[in-house]
Amino acid sequence: MFRYILVPAGGSDADMPAFRTALALARAASGHLAFLHARLDVQKLVISMAAGDVGGTAGIADVLQRLEQDAGDAEARSKQRVVDFCAQEHVALADSPLDERPSAEWHSETGDAARLLAAHGRTADLTVVGRLRDDGSVNLSVLQTVLLDSGRPLLVVPPHPPAAIGRRVAIAWKDSTEAARAVAATLPLFSAADRVTIVSVEEDARTTADACDRLRRALVWHNAATAVRHVRPEGRDPAEALLAAVTAEGADLLLMGGYSHSRLTEVVFGGVTRHVLQTAELPVLMVH
User: pLDDT tens digit string along 18-76?
Assistant: First the structure.
């Protein structure tokens, strides 16, 4: 199970779905929540503005002061929200292991949020990120950077996640190395689940019934309650067909592999993955 869980703490209401989901996982495994606040690098931003003569150099000092104040306020809000959340949920603040209780810590670093999350994510069991930014838009650029650069599992949380997570797990399966890595990296989840469903949307030769059955025969050794659901789109978008099948199974977690279009390019979320990340009503666990 996941015991050291990295969670971004921006200091807004948009943090809460990820906070709650991460805590549900921590409670299941006596885990630790590492909350990370990325403070705006004001000096770097102002230097860039000065180099481009944005607004003229006369106002740079005023801009610097205002941005530093805003960054400090955001950092203070972030810390207070984490402290309040932990107090409300009876989670101890600690930077070393306690007993069997979940624990948490808050940490702040200056720099780009996506890059900091990726760097810290490399040593975490799991990174839990809310799907939406403060303005309600989908955070695809951050998700892509963390997924590609951390090399560790990434859990993407919708605005209204289920109260329980990991009891009924669905696997979006293709006969590919990316999907195989995702399954291998999360095997402990399957052993603890009440039910595991391998969901395959018929698109190409990598989604055959034989490929699904090979995975089922292996996973029953981890969880006997493992089944296959092979889906034909029948005119629907493949992503919609996948999500409809996952919903019908009552899943509270969807596992997907992260896909790249060539060995020479970074991960670019394709149509199915992008649609799932933008619209799924359950947490989506991704591994690249």
Answer: 999 999 999 988 999 999 999 988 877 667 666 655 555 556 777 788 888 999 999 99
Query: Whole-prediction pTM value?
Result: 0.88
Instruction: List the beta bridge partners of residue 106.
Output: 35
User: What is the pairing mode between strands 195-201 and 168-172?
Assistant: parallel
Spatial contact of 130 and 157, defined as CB atoms under 8 Å apart: yes
* pLDDT tens for each residue of 187-226: 888 889 999 999 998 876 556 788 899 999 999 999 999 9
* Burial status of residue 78 (CB atoms within 10 A of its CB: 0-12, 13-18, 19 or more): buried
Q: Say if CB 155 and CB 186 are below 8 A apart.
A: no
| In 203-249, beta strands by DSSP E | 226-231
**Which secondary structure element, helix H or strand E, spans residue 210, and what is its range?**
helix 209-219
Pairing of strands 32-39, 4-8: parallel
Residue 195 pairs with which residues in a beta bridge?
Answer: 168
Residue 188 in tokens: 């402990």
Backbone angles phi, psi at 172, to 5 degrees: -80, 105
Exposed, middle or buried: residue 235 (CB in 10 Å: 0-12, 13-18, 19+)? exposed
Beta-carbon contacts of 93 under 8 Å, excluding residues fewer than 6 positions away, are 83, 86, 103, 104, 105, 106
Phi, psi of 100 (to 5 degrees): -95, 10
3-state secondary structure of 140: helix
Is residue 272 within 8 A of residue 239, CB to CB? The reply is yes
Interatomic CA distance for residues 196 and 183, integer angstroms: 12
